[in-house]
Amino acid sequence: MQDKTPILEMVNISKSFPGVKALDKVSLRAFPGEVMGLLGENGAGKSTLMKILSGVYKKDEGIIKIDGKEVEINGIKDAKRLGISIIHQELSLLPNLTIYENLFLGNEIVKGFKLNKKDMIQKSQEFLKKFNFNKSPKTLTRDLTVGEMQMVEIIKAISKNAKIVIMDEPTTALTEVETERLFTIINQLKQQNIAIIYISHRMEEIFRICDRITVLRDGTFVGEEDIKNVTKDKLISMMVGRKLEEQFPYVEVEKGKTILEVRNLSWKKIKDVSFNLKEGEILGIAGLMGSGRTEVAKLIFGEYKKEKGEILVEGKKVNINSPKDAIKNGIAYLSEDRKKEGLVLKLSVLENMMIANLKAYENKFKRLNKKKQLSDCKDYIKKLSIKTSSPYQIIKNLSGGNQQKVIIARWLLNSPKVLIIDEPTRGIDVGAKKEIYDILNQLKKQGKGIIMISSEMEEILGISDRIIVMHEGRITGEISRKEANQELIMKYAVGLTD
Amino acid sequence: MEKLKALALKFKSLIGLFFLCIVISIITPRFLNINNLLNVLTQVSVNAVIAIGMSFVILTGGIDLSVGSILAVTGALAASLISKQNSLFLAILLSLIVGALIGAFNGLLVSKGKIQPFIVTLAGMTIFRGVTYVYTNGTPISGLSKDFTFIGNARVLGIPFPVIITFIVFLIAWYLINETRFGRYVYALGGNEDSARLSGINTDSIKTMVYVISGITAAIGGIIVTSRIGSASPNAGSGYELDAIAAVVLGGTSLAGGEGSIAGTIIGAMIIGVLNNGLNLMNVSPFYQSIVKGLVILLAVLIDKKNKK
Ligand SMILES: Nc1ncnc2c1ncn2[C@@H]1O[C@H](COP(=O)(O)OP(=O)(O)OP(=O)(O)O)[C@@H](O)[C@H]1O
Ligand SMILES: [Mg+2]
């Protein structure tokens, strides 16, 4: 394996943004027919490196070689011409076009002035078949699931003769089944001698799919290793620069009185969901994607209007018709979709952090106390170790994990009684994951009630006090921490009850 | 150097205005004359006031095409109240209230009715123009009292009264946008409506409010125009919506919402005013003026786009 020649070599790449050195002499190689895992904590510079490779950013220093020859990448066009293709996390397909139209967008087959639809459809069919994708090329893209869209995106990349395919956290929005399908596709790509660069924070995935790994830390190169020569612990210590004790810290806390009670909640496919939550308790909600967990959260939070059921906070029935009402009643909700439902990308770290709690900063004449905002913001930047060049940095420029921490700070500032947190560590590195669990435990000690929706088995098992499992809009099981295990959760999650 | 560039970018509209002034004063010495400058400011004031309200709407990602018609309706209302009742206070108050109500009408259709702002205010534009024609029977209302014409024509300490009004409106708007919760919500709404709502912001009421503000500023514009001319014409203010939008855009506010400033809008309005005045002083025909104005807008937006990359 060692004597293979790399198809891609990036050597001593540096890149600075105003106030941050994102990459400092970083190197990366990729080999044909292999998957190179690119790992590192949030903000380590992975995405930046890939954006340089795909022509989105220009490097400040360093050289890029493809097939041993030095190349200049000055734009997305150059990268495409060189056979480099990136699967964005934000999908770039046009939802109102069909699959085949998307596949051939910009490369349409024409006969004179007329589109040759027949040929395009037929060719698309061949591509789709090759990947066992059983949809008609004439299907509208908007009718596909996220996973299927991603599949189309990958097929599109390959249909343009890509030699190097970059996947930046491709599985964050996929169901288990879809993830499996992605891995099958990756194996097919490997057989076609395509080089793959794979970014992910999920350890199991990395060990399953990668042939080698490269680790970055704080914008510097830590090392490249054959996957056979590393263990999970070694990987983590390469990434965070120290050993990580207990990855899923659990703390025992005396539970208080019932703080939230949900009775017979129903809405669309959600049927009669009832449960309660105590002070000092983390209630995990497990289930497969699409089992209705997020819907339940949004019903409690007033984003959706329930058809039936009632909600009690501290024993009193409350009327929640909008998120505003929910917040007034001490409920906070952290969305699973950071970009769409959490961040205001154009605004600064400070403004994103303050937006749900501005009322607390109003002085005379409704004037906002900016000094206090700044000092509180700095406080939380320190407390949650958020990596940002300044409180005024535009949040778009932060790495995913740090964006998540800003949103957590937003809700902590609100000092809620009940915190509903939906996929709290999606796209977050191991070190930061632990920090987030520590934060949740801290809140638990303060007597808050926490509902944690998660698709990560280890997380659910590791830090919940109690777990309820949902299947197709219903609760199919409730498990105490003591009796919880993966098999039991999966059994309930697929709808089997005892 | 980096810092200098950042500073230059921040004040790009101001720098643009400055250069425009220099070029014009080199070509025609009549420009740099205190009377002419005060004249420019007076002429700018109506557009500036309307553009301030428009900024709120555009910052949320909306647009208000009905401001010209609101100006006409409220101007006519003020004029008829003055000529019949001769109560200055009542005339002004009622005009402002009607402006706010029309704004609320637009705003509710946008927020609760979920109709696109362009459609709502395009319809509003023709509806309220029509209302003005019906109300005035298609003829100008004139014969207004001195008290009222004072607003548009008097000077206080040498400064034209409309300029003072504009300045006050600007201060209030600046305070609202920069110093209050409401202002932050406007930006959040324009940046990402879902996030804003899930942060507990009543997005519907913010959306409605910005149209109310735009309605009020259009009414202030109506009062100034009517008192300046001394009569209310049913086709007053037609086309003003475009000048206001141009001012907002020239001031660096993004039509997509979430980005921009009130100070920028004032400078945008000044750029248009100075350009108009300069071209007039140079005896350029109105036909050409219109072409030049359009080109300047395109140029400004092009420069903006280039620098944002
Ligand atoms: N356009 C930009 N302007 C300023 N700083 C930036 C910009 N893009 C990235 N950065 C900074 O560069 C660093 C590296 O960010 P990058 O997005 O590459 O991290 P990452 O390794 O992909 O992290 P994650 O795992 O969270 O996605 C971060 O500190 C980030 O704040
Ligand atoms: Mg990244």
UniProtKB/TrEMBL annotation, chain A:
Domain called ABC transporter: residue spans: 8-243, 254-497
Keywords noted in UniProt: ATP-binding, Cell membrane, Membrane, Nucleotide-binding, Repeat, Sugar transport, Translocase, Transport
GO molecular function: ATP binding; ATP hydrolysis activity
Membrane topology (UniProt): Peripheral membrane protein
Locations listed in the record: Cell inner membrane; Cell membrane
Keyword Protein biosynthesis among UniProt keywords: no
Principal location listed in the UniProt entry: membrane
UniProt protein name: Ribose transport system ATP-binding protein
Lineage: Bacteria, Bacillati, Bacillota, Clostridia, Eubacteriales
From TrEMBL, chain B:
Compartments, as annotated in UniProt: Cell membrane
InterPro entries cross-referenced by the UniProt entry: ABC_BtuC-like (IPR037294), ABC_transp_permease (IPR001851)
Domain of life from the UniProt record: Bacteria
An annotated GO cellular component: plasma membrane
Pfam families, alphabetized: BPD_transp_2 (PF02653)
A GO molecular-function descriptor: transmembrane transporter activity
Principal cellular location given in the protein's record: membrane
Keywords: Cell inner membrane, Cell membrane, Membrane, Transmembrane, Transmembrane helix, Transport
Membrane topology category: Multi-pass membrane protein
PANTHER family according to UniProt: ABC TRANSPORTER PERMEASE PROTEIN YPHD-RELATED, ABC TRANSPORTER PERMEASE PROTEIN YPHD-RELATED-RELATED
Record protein name field: Ribose transport system permease protein
Organism: Caloramator fervidus
